[in-house]
Amino acid sequence: MKLAAISEDMVKDGYQNIMNIDISAVVVEAMTAKYKDIPQLKCENSFEFFLKNAVLYFIRNSLYS
User: Fold this and answer.
1) What pLDDT digit, counting tens, does each position of 5-53 carry?
2) Which residues contact 59 (CB under 8 A, 6 or more apart)?
3) Secondary structure of the chain as H, E, C letters
4) What is the pLDDT of residue 19?
5) Which residue has the higher pLDDT, 57 or 36?
6) Which domain holds residue 20?
7) Residue 32 lies in a domain
8) Does 3 reside within a domain?
9) What's the number of domains the chain is made of?
10) Phi and psi (nearest 5°) for 39?
11) What global pTM score does this model have?
């Protein structure tokens, strides 16, 4: 079974916030286009996702430390 098919099934089962991650920007762009009408499915390039979360983690910990 393809991973995207699992994500589609999760939406059908009622999940509301599903993040699909891939290292290929081409795959992320294709999945974003394919699932543009399904707002519960989000796609991120894993490196960009990592950077965003690392920066947010740093800012949060800097403010509250």
Assistant:
1) 888 899 999 999 888 888 788 988 998 999 899 999 988 888 777 788 7
2) none
3) CCHHHHHHHHHHCCCCCEEEEECCHHHHHHHHHHCCCCCCEEEEEHHHHHHHHHHHHHHHHHHHC
4) 85
5) 36
6) 13-64
7) yes
8) no
9) 1
10) -65, -20
11) 0.59
